[in-house]
Design brief:
Order of helices and strands: EEEEEEE
Strand content: over 45%
Structural class: mainly beta
Radius of gyration: 14 Å
Strand order of the largest sheet: 4-2-6-7
Shape: elongated
Helix content: under 10%
Length: 85
């Protein structure tokens, strides 16, 4: 199955975002988020995902923003996903 996230950028800087960590049964794609823009991120849910309400965390990396020299900005995004079988 699939689900989706809507991400909004209120800044004047474009964001290049990639998923760096998620549960094994959850897959996200890299996206580009335009300045002052809104975009969707499709999240794939594998057939072996545990049924029911799942609290998960995605770790996203903004590859064009740096928190320190040589270190990209990372954000942990808590989600609750309902998996029905």
């Amino acid at each position: 199955g699939r689900c989706g996230l809507i991400l909004q950028n209120h800044s004047a800087i474009p964001f290049q975002i990639r998923v760096v960590k998620s549960p094994a049964w959850l897959r996200g794609r890299n996206i580009d988020l335009a300045p002052d823009g809104i975009t969707g991120m499709v999240i794939g849910v594998a057939k072996d995902a545990p049924a029911g309400s799942q609290k998960v965390e995605l770790e996203l990396e903004v590859t064009n923003l740096h928190a320190a020299p040589g270190q990209n900005l990372t954000v942990k995004l808590p989600l609750q996903i309902e998996v029905s079988k």
